[in-house]
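Can't attach files on this board, so I'm pasting raw text. These are the components:
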Amino acid sequence: MATERDFYEILGVPRTASQDEIQRAYRKLARAHHPDINADPGAEERFKEVSEAYDVLSDPQTRRRYDAFGRDFRQVPEGTDPDAWTRQRTRAGAGARGTAGRGGAGGGGPAGGFGYTAGGEVDLDDLLGSLFGGRGRGVGPIPGADQEAELQLTMEEAFRGGRRPVTIAGPGGQRTLDVTIPAGVTNGQRIRLAGQGGSGSGGARAGDLYLIVSVAPHPRYRLDGRDLHVELRVAPWEAVLGASAAVTTPGGDSTVKVPPGSSSGRKLRLRGRGLPNPKGTPGDLYAEVRIMVPAHPSRTERKLFEELAAESDFDPRSPQ
Amino acid sequence: MSFALVRPARLDLEDFARATGTHPDLVRRLVTLGILDARRGPGGELWFAPGQAAAMARIQRLRAGLALNYAALGLVTDLLERIAVLESALRRARRPGG
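---
Top answer:
Structure tokens for the assembled complex are below.
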């Protein structure tokens, strides 16, 4: 475990906390971060941290030793005087040989006296192994939990697919996975990365990691399932007389025929030009007509519009 | 260790216990408590769908990690399943906002 956070800090309790408070804090955090309840890839790591902290602080004896000696308390022989040990520790860097503390006399302790190496060898596997399997000894290997993380893609990435590095929190810090995104993934779709989820205990297989796709909003396109909606701006005369207009799609430029007499809101469908579908028919692209007028018409334009206004008996507000 | 998550589409009690690294008595008990789903064969023997191996793993993790008893485990697994259904419905509902 890369983090060296204080166990009290991990549980969010003061050093003076009672055993009851420690237990309460642990139960709350364990419920919040249990890998089956919280599918976030970082949750498993937090759950392990919390459990490790509780393992130590829940037992008054190990807690006392932790308070006196810190994280490396397992390296310190039973009955060592904390002050002597601190002095020893400051000298250890210079390679000084220990004058034994009180209870350490004889040096027969299992940790082999004071010759500990900095960053010593606390058997983390042993410690963590007890989290899932160990508490009830005799429990066999338990496969890891499945995890979920959101994968935000741009519209173009969703359209074309391809490879992309994805950074995920996990045991031992962040890791980066090279993920193949199939062309045409849509919102809410899940990409399964087998064996990249929570780690199993006792050699059991790891869970799977599911990346849930979320396509980022695009300034030009709106996504509805696999259908793409795009605005098609036309001039009033194009809307009346019909026109061929260029429209940009994520798959490249395309031409739409605007039929004569198209009002704003008319949707022109380009079949199969939406998001591709790996397992079936691709979505469609809908170009929605939007009539735009010149904000500052030229003198001639104005005159022509005035003529049209005088000539035309078209009433857009008549109830048909 | 490998898990028989492939066809055959069902496992008998012994195979299921072996695949999940558990004792058949525990598996039988979880079935009685309605925590694991199993079907009865013609001779009254238990058959398990391969997906139940993942359910078993979850039960073991919850029990080991949160010290839940078997009655609570049934409740928690039911609630987790309901939450999963609700979350996916929520994701579907949010979908049009692309």
